[in-house]
Description:
Layout: E1 14-16, H1 17-46, H2 55-80, E2 82-84, E3 99-104, E4 109-115, E5 126-128, H3 132-137, E6 145-150, E7 153-163
Amino acid sequence: MGRYRPPSPPKSKHITAAGAARLRAELKQLWEVKRPQVTRAVAEAAAQGDRSENAEYIYGKKQLREIDRRVRYLTKRLDELVVVDRMPDDQSRVFFGAWVRLEDEAGDEAIYRIVGADEYDMDAHYISLDSPLARALLGKREGEEIEVQLPKGSRRFVIVEVGYAPLG
């Protein structure tokens, strides 16, 4: 079996203003704080002599590569993102940035927010615009029923509430 992996499908280019600010803050922290610290540590480890058996040097170089890879990704990604910072005209329908309260067949409720691929976070109930659930929700209104194909099978949900501010 080879190492080839097919390229992942392109991510959506939309992001909320808060998500873009978080990515910019991460880039700034990596570039202005973390990278200089690691660079100093690598320079100090290199000054100790033999680099081939110097664990601090080897680990520091690995950290620098990881930081540089993330900085390149963030720089490129921030250039191509489209910040969505205004409400849609029809706020009764589900669009990007919407908070949605769903009820499943068992009567259990869950609240999700549709966000960009770079800011999804299941702990905060943020789902990616590219996810099957978000794609099924887009354009729908309160009271509508959706069916979503999930890895564990098909599930039905009823849209209980749609809003563009956090739902309580």
